[in-house]
Write a structure and sequence with these properties.
- Helix 3 packs across helix 5 (90-113) and helix 4 packs antiparallel against helix 5 (90-113).
- This protein has helices at 2-35, 37-49, 55-62, 70-86, 90-113.
- It is elongated and about 75 Å long.
- With 114 residues, it is mainly α.
- The mean pLDDT is 82.
- The N and C termini lie far apart (74 Å).
C-alpha cells in the first residue's frame, strides 16, 4: 500500500516538474527573442563560420601553387607536419593539418564537378 502511494507521488511529482520545466523553457525562448539574445547567437554563428580557412590561405600555409599536383601537396604537408611535431608548436601543426583538410575538401569538390 505504501509503495503504491509512493509510486503515485513520484509519477505526479515528475509530471509537475516536467510541465514546469517546459513552461520555463518556453518563457526563456520568448524572453530571448525580446532581448535580442537569439540575434546575438546567430551573429556569433556567422562569425565562427567566417573563421573557416579559405583555399588560398591553405595553399599559402603549405607553400604550394594553385596548379600543384596532389602528391606535391602531400609532400609539403608531411614535411611541415613532421617538422612541427618535433621542433615546432602544436598551433602550427594544427594549422598545417587544417590546411590539408581544406585542400582535400576543395579537391573532392572539384572532382565532383567533373
Amino acid at each position: 500500500m505504501a509503495a503504491k502511494i509512493l509510486a503515485n507521488l513520484l509519477v505526479l511529482g515528475s509530471g509537475v516538474i516536467l510541465r514546469a520545466f517546459t513552461q520555463a523553457y518556453r518563457q526563456a525562448l520568448v524572453n530571448a527573442s525580446k532581448t535580442g539574445v537569439a540575434q546575438e547567437t546567430m551573429q556569433n554563428a556567422v562569425r565562427k563560420s567566417s573563421k573557416l580557412m579559405s583555399e588560398q590561405e591553405a595553399r599559402l600555409i603549405l607553400g604550394v601553387k594553385d596548379n600543384a599536383p596532389w602528391e606535391e601537396i602531400m609532400k609539403k604537408y608531411d614535411a611541415l607536419f613532421e617538422r612541427n611535431s618535433k621542433f615546432g608548436s602544436f598551433y602550427l601543426q594544427s594549422k598545417v593539418h587544417r590546411a590539408k583538410e581544406c585542400l582535400e575538401a576543395c579537391r573532392h569538390a572539384h572532382m565532383g564537378d567533373k
